[in-house]
Here is the input.
Amino acid sequence: MYNVEIIGTGSYVPEHRVSNDDLAKFVDTSDQWIRERTGIIERRISLEENTTELAVKAAQRALEDAHIAPEEIDLLIVATVTPDYFFPSTACLIQQRIGAVKAVSFDISAACTGFIFGLSIAGQFLKTGMYRTALVLGAEVFSKIIDWEDRNTCVLFADGAGAAVLRRGAEGIISELIRSDGSGAGHLECPAVPLQNKFSACSTEKRPSYTLMNGREVFKFAVRIIPEYIEKVLTNTGYTLEDIKYIIPHQANTRIVAAAAKKLGVDQAKFYVNIQYYGNTSGASIPLALDEMSRQGLLQKGDLFIIVGFGAGLTYGAQLIRWTKG
Ligand code: COA
Here is the structure.
């Protein structure tokens, strides 16, 4: 088996900023409530660019950062729950736009855990030697599937894209775990098209494609899963939490991070948080944070960090990674 490392990252968010006060103009909420209950101050909402557009920009930045040409990509995976089309996949559209002519390209659906799932799937192909280079993206225009009258959800979610280039090489991904629990599927969902055809008398209820969330259940789940999987991904690696420079959690709520830090007995500063500026960008949140950290010079060669996430499905997982870029 080969080792796999991250050799480049990129991200992109739409220009348009939406403040909490902007939201308070059309739903019964306030800047104070949103800041205190979620940590979010503002978010980016797309005015014109769809998911593919955001992803293409993030992908190009990642390729530039990795110093590789698009033709070198063997595998292109996009984690998204807000594709432009049912088909073709967002990955195929991106492949064409960036000129990744050799890449086998497909989307995966694991909601906010999508990037972690994508990294893991890509990693397996690289570890076995089947492919050498992979581009993994998390990209969402979540604003498309939000009911802007629903204060439970519209204050949380937002748009963005993040990308990472993976290559066979040094030992970057040290350990990983991905999991799902379909018994919690109803806690966070977005209906698709109803069952309806010429041959069936049955027609399932036509419901708008908006996000429906049981916030309290998801919160409880996240507070349990985040610390548990941070500990689990360290098991049998010879490393402890003290060796970890940063934990990059899915950016969902600062109170989830505070609770996880408390449970683990670690300083909250170990968790990298940028939700205040971007809200919850679902599958994009972790690669967006990772790229921001890389560009700010927060990660030095050799540093260990953990990415950990959860989302609809329910899905969850974590990776222990060594930063191998110089
Ligand atoms: N503005 C103002 N008040 C709001 C509000 C909003 N946007 N949303 C809910 N409220 C109200 C509720 O109606 C409730 O009022 P009541 O006490 O009069 O009934 C009160 O605030 C508390 O509601 P509650 O649902 O208990 O709030 P909370 O502290 O649990 O925070 C979430 C709500 C959604 C922020 C929180 O549950 C959460 O973050 N859950 C996880 C969601 C998540 O991470 N989703 C993405 C997964 S990838």
Summary: The CA atoms of residues 89 and 107 lie 6 Å apart.
